[in-house]
Amino acid sequence: MHATLMKRLAFAVGCSFCACGNGASGVPGSQDAAPSPDASKDAGAPPFDAGDGATSGGSQLLDGLDPASAKYKAIGRFHGSLTCTAVFVQTSPNPAAPAYALTSGHCPAILGANDVTLDAEAGSDFRVVFNYFANTEQARVQVPVARIEHATMKGHDIAVLKLARTVGELGTLGIAPLEIAASSPSAGTPLDVVGAPLDTSQADDFLRRERCMGRTSSVNLVEFHWHFFDAQANDCIDIRSGSSGSPVFVHAGTRIHALMNTTARGSDGTTDCYANRPCELTATGYTVRPDASYATPVAGLGGCFDARGLFDRRRAQCPLDDGRQLQVEGGPLGANQPYVMDNGVRRRLRWDRALHHAEFTHYRYKTGPAHATNCRDLAGYGAPTALTATSVIRDEVPEAEGFYYLCLLGGRSPTPDSTWQNPRFVRIEQVQIDTTPPQRLPGTLVHDFGAEGLRVELIFYPPELSQYRYKVGPSASTDCAQPDGYDDYLRIAIPILREDLPAKLCIVGQDEAGNAAPPFARTFE
After folding, report:
1. Are 207 and 72 spatial neighbours (Cβ–Cβ below 8 Å)?
2. HSE (CB half, 13 Å, CA atoms) of 390?
3. What is the CATH number of domain 17-24+54-303?
4. pLDDT of 266-287, one tens digit each?
5. Among 132, 314, 412, 483, which residue's Cβ finds the most Cβ atoms within 10 Å?
6. For the whole model, what pTM was predicted?
7. E strands, 185-338, in order
8. Hey, CA dihedral for 80, 320, 114, 435, is it positive or negative?
9. Candidates 3.40.30.10, 3.40.50.1220, 3.40.50.450, 2.60.40.10; correct CATH number of 443-524?
């Protein structure tokens, strides 16, 4: 599975990672812009949720004209790098304070496992559309995003957006903020999730509510090269593209406890812990719950705003990552085999992580299996090492299949003190040891050009089938088990001339760790 970071991120966006969409379904109308001509009309709005309080078995479209829905006007469609849901949150009673919204960290931009974006410019077209009900077309409120105050997928998938409106200005438009909860609900609590998932039907592509149940109080997840702490599992079944950032409430409540982040529902089951198939870390390893969805906790984020209603991540009460961490050269390690060739010599895979930092002078680290290594716990860390003494960690990675963590903390003194990075915001480098060959058969797409012959495309299924080797020869004499004659498939359709038929196409698929599947043969008459 040796893919570059850009290839990995492109795949993640292409498969609408973490229940976000990479496109919008019609630009809705607002107070600031003319309504979209393809937006749903009030008279043609579909049936609405009866609101009887029962678990629905799926989301129900909300009626924006029902007084009971008024509290949800603060939840809207976020248009950014991805299409998600965002919620306007209560930060201060001061009407002159800037308005802020929360959404998932990957919605402004897909980020690396340790990236922390602080006080960044927003895209010129980034916006949130509030009052986003199917039957409130003329009353929707479109608000530009002024700044990305904070965004990360490091441990928690969260973004804080500063909007180009004040609290008072939104209030005059009928949009009242929702309060951030001070604590997380216990396991087994009935929940309401309200969001704007993308839908194939324009009539249904608006705010919806699902009533579901919380599961375990919190779990740690591995998904792709990301790690998520304290995720709240639930049994919500209607988490789709656009659902990321949807606020989670205790049933019938108005305080936001979490934001929907990702789901294992709908995953094909071929590759655990990859994008769209998150794994829960357990006492003995990991497990996939194919019927589970997950939310990022936001309890306590109210402490990130001062008395004037201004965002300040430096406040002691603010639980957000301050961005201070060691820098590591190179992209994510991803999936690997336990042995590599180094100048013709076979050796064990090593971490080989080169560290640097403009201010930190020392670092500490520990390694271990992801399921058994609590990087936020100082127990097990080695003694501080000066970056000037050695800045490269060359420890060998274990041979056994699984996920492994390298936990890194930095500081400005030879003895850990207040200048050191808070272990809550530890940097984690992750690697997967994978020795299992691909189980999936290659996919082929055949184009028949008549007298000229055939052209065969090979279909990729990352990470299980991320690269191919192939050869073509006479069907009677070509032995796919013989390694001679194979070429790399460069994503150019393979020509088979009509005069060369019958022919045999031999295909060897490899996963991202470089494990090869047994040869697959297809004969063309």
Report:
1. yes
2. 10
3. 2.40.10.120
4. 887 778 999 999 999 999 999 9
5. 132
6. 0.87
7. 190-195, 208-213, 219-223, 226-234, 247-250, 255-263, 279-281, 286-287, 293-297, 327-328, 334-336
8. negative
9. 2.60.40.10
